[in-house]
Amino acid sequence: MTAVVPHYAMSGGTLIALAADEIVMSEYAVIGPVDPQIGQHPAASVLKAVSRKPIAEVDDETLILADQAEKAIPQVRESVRELLADKLPPEKAAEVARVLSEGTWTHDHPITFETAKGFGLPVRSDIPAEFLDLMQLYPQPVRRQPAVEYLPQPRRFQGGGAPRPKD
Hints:
Elements: E1 2-5, E2 8-9, H1 12-19, E3 22-25, E4 30-31, E5 37-38, E6 41-42, H2 43-51, H3 60-84, H4 90-101, E7 111-112, H5 113-119, E8 123-124, H6 129-136
Parallel strand pairs: 1-3, 2-4, 3-8
Antiparallel strand pairs: 4-7, 5-6
């Protein structure tokens, strides 16, 4: 199986790519780390924060997140190592799994083709032009939160009518 990465495959997309026999990336494509995220925080950062404080000063919710983080990091590391077991020597697979899963970088860090190749991952850069042509047909929307929302009709509130200005 071949994973084709025309632009980016981050986090779960990286895991899918690592499961393939080979990864074909375009010249500027990137993959990303697979470090687990606990709630809205990187697992490695939760553990680091907890380790820097006396336990009595850490709230219960953070301790629960740290417990999850202690479990999640080895689980992901082992999953990546298994995905790489038939592609890299055991020591190299373990090292790449560690680097990708243990919070070496921020979760959105781009890993280029050259870096992936340096890891020994089975990557090629000869992506067929047809894949890039196909991607042109599906432009990705720019994510923005509108500062002003256009409503073609007045917004109705419970009780009817528009809200009254405050004095």
